[in-house]
Design brief:
Layout (H helix, E strand, L loop, with lengths): L4 E3 L3 H8 L10 E4 L4 E6 L8 H4 L2 E7 L17 E3 L10 H6 L1 E6 L1 E6 L7 E7 L5 E11 L5 E11 L10 E3 L7 H5 L10 H4 L7 E5 L32
Parallel strand pairs: 4-10, 5-10
Antiparallel strand pairs: 1-2, 1-7, 3-4, 6-9, 7-8, 8-12, 9-10, 10-11
């Protein structure tokens, strides 16, 4: 799954990496949690036709997708992840997967490995080359009762592979750069043609560090939460070199 991530690259680096102009106020964020606003990149869709004229666009969206048919938001679960294997079959995700795919830029993400006893161990996971990357995501614009529009987003996940599987059974769908435009092309690429995106697991060279459990608190936004610490126990099968 993906329940916490960060975006700490300089705005100009993110803008250049994703070929998009960013909102004016864009500080580094070290501990982004569901229900908070996140940066998303769109490349045009039936929902945002203007993006086809001006290229990619960046906007902020609530992390936690609200399907358009929702009547009572308070009773809905927080849909911050969507399984890539079943998203096309679920009413909550199918319209967004078909018409409103987007990218969530990130610098890294956090995952917790369960132990037989004791508290789960948090890990900070980022590309070994320290470059920004993007999660495959879907968006929906919810029309509230008062007439206001709320852009919302969910990040796709898939079964974890390679080193990440030693930490958690699922991982976010990270987009290889040559797959980003295919993912964003909702006009010409239907959901059944997205398997190359979903099956690209274990292609990223990850740096994986055990970190302080300070990351457990979404109110702790200090860069110190990413400081590595010794892993309390050997990783499963000895496959995770820290």
């Amino acid at each position: 799954m993906c329940g916490r991530f960060c975006l700490t690259h300089a705005p100009e680096d993110v803008s250049q990496r994703f070929d998009v102009a960013l909102p004016e106020e864009f500080p580094a964020r070290y501990n982004i949690a569901p229900s908070q606003p996140v940066l998303i990149v769109i490349g045009g869709s039936e929902h945002r036709p203007e993006a086809w004229q001006s290229g990619r666009q960046a906007l902020l969206a609530r992390w936690g997708l609200i399907p358009a048919w929702t009547r009572d938001v308070a009773s809905m679960p927080l849909l911050f992840n969507a399984r890539s294997e079943t998203a096309a079959a679920r009413n909550a995700f199918r319209p967004a997967l078909t018409h409103r795919r987007c990218i969530v830029p990130a610098s890294g993400f956090y995952e917790w490995r369960k132990q037989i006893s004791g508290r789960p161990i948090p890990y900070f996971i980022r590309p070994a080359d320290r470059q920004a990357f993007g999660f495959a995501a879907i968006m929906e614009t919810y029309l509230a009762a008062d007439g206001s529009e709320i852009d919302t987003v969910a990040i796709l996940t898939r079964p974890a592979a390679g080193r990440l599987a030693d930490i958690h059974p699922r991982e976010p769908v990270t987009l290889q750069r040559d797959m980003e435009q295919l993912w964003l092309d909702c006009r010409n690429v239907p959901p059944h043609a997205l398997q190359p995106v979903f099956s690209g697991a274990d292609e990223m060279d990850w740096q994986i560090d055990a970190i302080s459990d300070r990351v457990n608190s979404a109110t702790d936004m200090s860069p110190d939460i990413q400081r590595p610490r010794p892993a309390p126990e050997p990783p499963a099968q000895g496959r995770l070199a820290l």
